[in-house]
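example protein:
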Amino acid sequence: MIAAPTDRPPTDRPPTDRNRTLAVAGLLMGIALAALESSVIATAMPTVIRDLGGQGLYALPFAVYLLTSTVTSPLWGRASDLLGRKRLYLAGIVIFLLGSMLCGAATSMVALVAARALQGVGAGAVQTLTFTLVGEMFTLEQRARVQGFFSGVWGLAGLLGPLLGGLIVDHASWRWVFYLNLPFGIPALMLAARCLNGARPVPGGQVPGGQVPGGQVPGGQVPGGQVPGGRVPIDWLGALLFTLGSGLLIWGLEFREWTLVALSALVLGAALWTEARHSAPLLPLKNLRAALPRVGVVGNLLAGAAYFGTISYLPLFAQGVSGQGATAAGAILTPMLLGWTGTSIIAARVLGRLGTTRLILWGFNILVLAFLGLSLAAHAPLWVISAVGFFAGSGMGFAMFTLLIAVQQATPRPDLGAMTSAILFSRQLGGAIGTALMGTLIGQAAISAGGGALADGLQRAFLLALGLVVLAWIMAQTLRGVGKPAPEARQAGSD
């Protein structure tokens, strides 16, 4: 049992716009570092392998970072609901920077893998709690603009990461890929420590039980309520089973160990059984009874599988089908990332006028059309694939960004961290599932052969992606018939 945090305002200083602006600047630096770290290492790894050896461990620095950042995300989210966001965000930044320092100092591949695992634990906190904190600090329309800006920074970091990694390796040392996190991460830590207390929302009060007045949030009221009695039991068994099951699933998918995948299904089933019977579960399953959170979680899982699975294998089209080089293989992803970033920013600007339901449906409509186009264009020229990829990214920007905003608005504060982390976790888990399934459909023989055989394999993968986004589109139709959400503020503290 632990004491629940209270919502009393801080007494050390009054809330100010300046504090909130500085807090956002700190959060922005933190999320940029986490985004860069997921992509910047790609261009550094060949040099790392030459320095440290361990060619057989080439994939592990990527895999363990993905594993620990993904499986710890729900833990950080629920723990922040129970223990307070600020202290856990600061702990996450410290862990991330410590992992970065150890990565830069690694003298063997084993040490690098272990440090990347630690770094991933910190990144799980930074990613989840950044969006949760923003969800508490701003009204709906303000939050849409701020989160749109964060999404833009995330997309830009994804684009610049490989290029930045190559420049650092060419002109300095691969170790600075990790050490450069420190001069940016330490100011982020200081700004968060100094300013998050004062980063309060404008007056307006919490929406009771997660319901926006007038029933205008898609899916209606989310079951909610306050933390009872000031003390909350932690579901340690459910958290352990969920983390173990998620870890087995992601590891098994990453390395095609289907026995681990089957075992993970049993462990996750036991975790859900335990969670359903606990008063403060890691994942607030009661919230999924409402349409909006259910669409948010399952829609992110399905669309994440389609989108990130496609991103994993689309460079093969440039090299194995079109016969282009590595530069073209990287460039083919640029339109997808630009589409996601651009429509996230557009959605942030128009959400208040158009409403969440319309933007979510627009996003899934575009996704269905884009993946239909990809499935028909597997033998088309490279520029056609790139153009269609732009629309796939655009659909993700409209749908995923707006779903996150809408679910946060419909969720009571005691479950805000858990629901935010559930959405981000389901998207990442979907990516791991989609990558594994598409790799199986394409087949190693087609990847080795290239040409027409590879194009046929990619077409099978694109058809799978189309089926996944059609399922997500069908689920999204349950959100029809409701208006745009009211711009209510959620009263909450940051510590």
User: Anything to note?
Assistant: The longest helix spans residues 140-171. Strands lie at 2-3, 231-232. The chain has 19 helices and two strands.
